Amino acid sequence: MRVTTAGESHGKALVAIIEGMPAGLQLDIAAIDEQLKLRQSGYGRGARQKLECDKVEMLTGLRNGVTIGSPIALAVYNRDYENWKAYMAPEGCDTQARKVTRVRPGHADLTGLKKFGGEDARNILERASARETAVRVAAGTVLRQYLSALGVEVAGFVRSVGNIKDEGKYSFDDIKKKSETLGMLDKNVEERAVKYIEECKAAGDTCGGVLELRVKGLKSGFGSFMTYAEKLDARLAFALMSVQAIKGVEFGDGFALSAKKGSEAHDEIYYAGDKFTRNTNRAGGIEGGMSNGEELVVRAAMKPIPTLMRGLNTVDYVSKQPARADTERSDVCAITACEVVLESALATELARVVSERLGGDTMTEVLDRYGRLPQ
Ligand code: EPS
Predict the structure, then answer these.
(1) Is the pTM higher than 0.85?
(2) CATH fold for the domain made of 2-371
(3) Contact, 312 vs 102, CB < 8 A?
(4) Ligand 1 contact, 240 CB (< 6 A)
(5) Which residue's alpha carbon is nearest to atom 15 within ligand 1?
């Protein structure tokens, strides 16, 4: 299975192609639109989300809602294109207007210009923008439905915003009850987080946070230690780090494990009721680069969005004079959206790992093979 995307933030559309999906998977297209809507939600989002009403258009690979084994192409159209046609149309447009030269620290602008040439960071930011995550969510929701057919479910929530943290312990089912405001689980913590976002907004600033993702129902043995590139944690970390603004990823107790003794850091093994069991899950469901049958637990850190309304100090790329970085509009905090995106990114890579082991041209074959694996 392979997934790729294309499209610019203010271009006509964002598109994705999914190769290798077996035939016979009934897709729930409304569920894709639901995820797209969730990606646009959350306290602290900017004006762009008021303009867009993201919906998927399935272009190929399905008949009557069921996959036929051929590549699946899908599109999410940018409503804002109507306002940008004059400057973005692939067929011909004005490339002198809407130039961006006051390059933003933390964004791809400066390094992108040095790498791809020219003097207009518009050509860089159009693709680097987190707008691309809309189509990743659309494609990711298709792969999530492949996992779901096997009984593998992905969920997640917002652990912290800035320094405001939720330290609670939650089960997979608790996560489903997260709030619509920010995607947090503790109302009191969320109220403080909302206040913090308001403070950032008033100061023309932005903020990030930490997200936690879980995977339930994955059997043991996915990923491998035989070659380093097959390790499940390495592959999932790659997928999460590929999402805009993610600066760190940890599995299970992650960084905190480094401060513990070996006797406190591992998940001791017992045998009861004809199966191997654990009382803890500090490893986050991955040992030796393979799923061990426990719930996967992954956290990712999102940095504050680099477009600040108050502008950071920079240099104009053309005049070389000191300047305030470019801004038009910005999200103050996109942590809730980022969580939705990460669920899709995780589901995408996990589905690829699963399909590499199971193969199969039809979902019947896939389900049969998965059913015969040990827990
Ligand atoms: C985004 C759309 C973008 C930004 C944001 C994410 O829209 P515009 O640039 O037109 O305001 O709101 O992109 C970034 C945070 C970024 O750094 O590029 C979206 O749909 O998620």
Answers:
(1) yes
(2) Chorismate synthase, AroC fold (3.60.150)
(3) no
(4) no
(5) 130
